[in-house]
Amino acid sequence: QVHLVESGGGSVQAGGSLRISCVASERAYSSYCMAWFRQAPGKERERVAAIGTTGTTLYADSVKGRFTISADNPKVIVYLQMDNLRPEDTGMYYCAADRLTVGMNRHLELGHIPPASAFEFWGQGTQVTVSS
After folding, report:
1. Cis-peptide into 87, omega within 30 deg
2. Which residue, 129, 125, 17, 131, is CA-closest to 81?
3. pLDDT 10s digit of each residue in the chain, 132 long?
4. HSE (CB half, 13 Å, CA atoms) of 27?
5. Cβ contact 60:109 at 8 Å
6. Quick check: helix, strand or coil at residue 88?
7. Contact by Cβ (8 Å): 8, 20
């Protein structure tokens, strides 16, 4: 069982920045895809960013140019640097991880963040609130 623990959420005004972190319980992430999702009240969980084995990074269009996903080597900690935050970025942010299966790799090769259903391991979430 892999455990993921997020931290670093908080409240910030629009235009501000936050960095959230996800610490994994194991070191075997050289063959994993790690990703961030978010969910606002009453809305579906949406993809935010993902990082693959070679350091390939993918972003949702809504955060491209403002958010940066990164990981230490060997991806025990995954970060999401969020700049120029907007009120619509408000939500619970979840870290997700899973092995790079054929299906997972196909999403990455096509330039898509894999869907939530592709990830087995999840953190408990960290709240990000952006006020206008």
Report:
1. no
2. 17
3. 788 999 999 999 999 999 999 998 875 566 789 999 999 999 999 999 999 877 789 999 999 999 999 988 666 889 999 999 999 999 999 999 998 888 888 998 899 999 999 999 999 999 999 999
4. 2
5. no
6. helix
7. yes
